[in-house]
Amino acid sequence: MKPQNVQIITNVPLECGTVEKMLEEMPGHTVESMCRTIVNSANRFFEDESHRAEYEAWKKSRQKAIA
Fold it and tell me: What residues have CB less than 8 Å from 19, skipping those under 6 apart?
């Protein structure tokens, strides 16, 4: 069972095949636990004002590069 609304990078080679194959073979509760860990880590990262500022500067430079 894959979490809903999550894009998975499928072309990353691993010893067991691809990330998608690895996630398909994992129990759903394991995938959900991994996702919660990643989301919680990202939330903690962005609690730091300097990290948010760095991200906003990066995002602005990416938007200029795309335009």
Answer: 8, 9, 10, 12
Residue type, 38: I
Give the chain's domain count. 1
pLDDT digits (tens, 9 = 90+) for 32-50: 998 899 999 999 999 999 9
Structural domain includes residue 43: yes
Q: Which residue range is the domain that position 21 belongs to? A: 13-66
Q: How confident is the model at residue 15 (pLDDT cuts 50, 70, 90)?
A: low
For residue 8, tell me if it sits in a domain. no
pTM for the predicted model, two decimal places: 0.57
